[in-house]
């Protein structure tokens, strides 16, 4: 076995509690584009035009068109071996999955893993919301919403059933606060974890990128899975420079705990 993988498995074997922090890279092998990097979404679109409350106020039709396109793209994707390995690990071990991803693939992998059995004890903590929910721009209404969105004009965009204001995607944009309960559960899990496994994130967006720091500050270790270096790499006790779908199953397979 590769020395890096052996070291990483050893770290996990000695851990009672584990927290995972994942980002777009974990879904790359499922066909979901990442944000940054050569083929990332931000190469062809500017985040300030699409992923801020100001952008939605300025042009809700354009923003909904983009989110509608991403919904269709993600709906055609399936969990990959990394999602499935993490789901299996979370069902067997004391582990919490925290994700920045809005694609729902971790949840789908978990639900597939428990098919026919009782529902999983906990679902992933989704720091940045979900592509398949909406919230009202005026009242508290929020709901699951995975149907098609007609972004042909302002008049055809989805409206709130309670107050008729525009609905918006149920995601967290730049400059917006994350759900305080979700955030607090993520940081608590990170503080209590012996190991934080960070998979497929550039670790530049905060407060998500601070989750592994909470593990380190509480005396735990960080293990990174990413083909490229990140600001977290220098703090990691073990690093696997490989695509998540290839290496995460080997990392988490039976025997690593
Ligand atoms: C693979 C792979 C393979 C490829 N296998 N790996 C502290 C310091 C500086 C700034 C701030 C700070 N605190 C807050 C801020 C401001 C801001 C921020 O962080 N800005 C920085 C970018 C500078 N943060 C916020 O605004 C947040 N809100 C907030 O803090 O509220 C409080 C507040 C309010 C007002 C003022 C100030 C504070 C909210 C952040 C919301 C982020 N939203 C997005 C869009 C979500 C909706 C959507 O999807 O449309 O979330 S942006 C985008 O980035 C998305 C992602 O979740 C997020 C992180 O990206 P991620 O997942 O890391 O993806 P990539 O593409 O960056 O990286 C992919 C990685 O995978 C790469 O490393 C590849 O190498 C790797 N990879 N293939 C494994 N096969
Ligand atoms: Zn409303």
Q: Would you mind describing this structure in some detail?
A:
- This protein has helices at residues 3-13, 25-28, 41-44, 47-50, 53-58, 60-75, 81-92, 105-113, 180-192, 211-217, 244-252, and strands at residues 18-22, 95-99, 125-126, 129-136, 142-144, 167-171, 195-199, 221-225, 238-240.
- With 257 residues, it is an alpha/beta fold.
- The strands form two sheets. It has a six-stranded parallel β-sheet, sandwiched between helices. Strands 5-4-6 form a three-stranded antiparallel β-sheet, covered by helices on one side.
- Strand 7, helix 10 and strand 8 form a beta-alpha-beta unit.
- 41% of the residues are buried.
- Residues 136, 138-139, 141, 160, 162-163, 165 line the site of zinc ion.
């Amino acid at each position: 076995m590769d020395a890096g993988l052996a070291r990483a498995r050893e770290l996990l074997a000695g851990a009672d509690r584990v927290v995972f922090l994942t980002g777009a890279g974990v879904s790359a092998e499922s066909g979901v584009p990442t944000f940054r990097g050569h083929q990332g979404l931000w190469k062809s679109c500017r985040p300030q035009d699409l992923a801020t409350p100001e952008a939605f106020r300025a042009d809700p039709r354009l923003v909904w068109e983009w989110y509608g396109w991403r919904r269709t793209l993600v709906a055609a994707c399936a969990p990959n071996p990394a999602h499935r390995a993490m789901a299996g690990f979370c069902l067997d071990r004391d582990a919490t999955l925290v994700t920045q991803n809005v694609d729902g693939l971790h949840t789908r992998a978990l639900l597939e893993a428990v098919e026919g059995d009782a529902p999983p004890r906990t679902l992933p903590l989704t720091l940045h919301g979900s592509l398949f929910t909406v919230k009202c721009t005026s009242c508290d209404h929020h709901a699951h919403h995975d149907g098609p969105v007609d972004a042909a004009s302002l008049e055809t965009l989805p409206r709130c059933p309670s107050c008729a204001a525009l609905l918006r995607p149920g995601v967290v944009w730049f400059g917006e606060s994350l759900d305080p309960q979700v955030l607090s559960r993520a940081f608590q899990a990170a503080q209590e974890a012996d190991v934080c496994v960070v998979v497929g994130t550039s670790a530049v967006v905060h407060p998500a990128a601070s989750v592994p720091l909470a593990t380190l500050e509480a005396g735990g270790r960080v293990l990174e899975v990413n083909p490229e270096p990140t600001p977290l790499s220098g703090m990691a006790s073990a690093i696997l420079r490989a695509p998540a779908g290839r290496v995460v199953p080997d990392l988490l397979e039976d025997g690593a705990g």
